[in-house]
Each structure stands twice: as structure tokens, then as C-alpha cells.
Design brief:
mainly alpha, 9 helices, elongated
Length: about 170
């Protein structure tokens, strides 16, 4: 993926990653090295774009970068924010080896004991975090009934060759 570097582009990247991971795609993110979007980067510095596109960032690396931009890991609220963001994402990985790699990284980022993080991971819930709120209840579609005139008009639009029969 390569979205704009503004906050809307960052959110679009997070949503795209989540949707792609749900389909078990292997994902890489091209971080725009220069300019506000890929187009501007290619026009200003094609070499920088080629280098960035040759070295896409893995999804979890992007998540960690995003978390560091959003939260200060030196503060308790920052640590809590990073945990709330990253633990559900780490828990989504089926492989304990992968989980272990990311948990070690998170422990280093937060300067905390990894055993404490494993306890928090057990409690973490896997929820879609970037797709927006899920609809709470489905609203049934309104059933429409058509009068004879509307039905006939629809029929004529579907089969225009019958128009002379109706018009006459």
C-alpha cells in the first residue's frame, strides 16, 4: 500500500492493512519519503520513490511507528495507549513465535518486563480497531410496492420494443 502521508492517508493505511490481513494477504507499506503523496514524490524525486517501493515496511512495523507517533511511551497514559493499540494486533497473529517477536519489541519500546505484557495479551480482545464502529443493528430495507403505472413504466424501460403497444 502507498497512501498519502497526511493523517487521512495514515488512517486509510491502517484500515487497508486490517482488511487485507483479514484475507491473509502478505502486506507491505510504502512510506512516502518525500512530498504529500506518491504522485508528488515520483515527480520530485523518482529515485527516492524507487528505493521506498523496493523496501516496503511490514504491517507490524507500520503499526509500531503509528503507535509511537500517537503515544509517548515515557508516560503511563502513553504506555496504556500503545498497549491498547498494539496488543490486539499482536494477538491476531496465530503463531506464538510471531507474537513473541512483537512482544519483545513492545517490552523494549515501553521499557517494561515482558512477563507483564504476556498477562495483558491474554486479556486483550481482538477487535477491528480502524474500520470504524460496527453497526449495532441492521435496519431492514423498506419494502416498496409499485402501482400498475410504475410497473408498466419499468416494463417498458426493460423492453422498449413494447412501447408502441402501450402508447397506442
Amino acid at each position: 500500500f502507498a497512501f498519502d502521508s497526511d493523517s487521512a492517508g495514515q488512517l486509510a493505511t491502517l484500515r487497508a492493512i486490517e482488511l487485507a490481513q483479514a484475507q491473509e494477504f502478505d502486506i507491505g507499506i510504502i512510506e512516502v519519503p518525500e512530498g504529500k503523496d506518491p504522485d508528488e514524490c515520483v515527480r520530485k524525486n523518482p529515485e527516492a520513490w524507487l528505493k521506498a517501493s523496493a523496501e516496503p515496511v511490514p504491517a507490524m512495523d507500520f503499526y509500531f511507528s503509528h503507535a509511537r507517533r500517537q503515544f509517548d511511551p515515557a508516560t503511563v497514559p502513553g504506555k496504556k495507549g500503545m498497549l491498547a493499540l498494539l496488543l490486539p494486533l499482536i494477538k491476531q497473529h496465530a503463531s506464538e513465535v510471531e507474537q513473541g517477536v512483537y512482544m519483545e519489541r513492545l517490552a523494549l519500546e515501553l521499557k517494561t518486563d515482558i512477563r507483564l505484557l504476556w498477562n495483558d495479551l491474554k486479556k486483550a480482545k481482538i477487535t477491528p480497531s480502524f474500520l470504524g464502529p460496527a453497526p449495532t443493528e441492521l435496519v431492514p430495507l423498506e419494502k416498496k410496492t409499485f402501482g400498475r403505472e410504475m410497473y408498466l413504466l419499468g416494463f417498458i424501460f426493460q423492453y422498449p420494443s413494447f412501447y408502441p403497444l402501450v402508447h397506442g
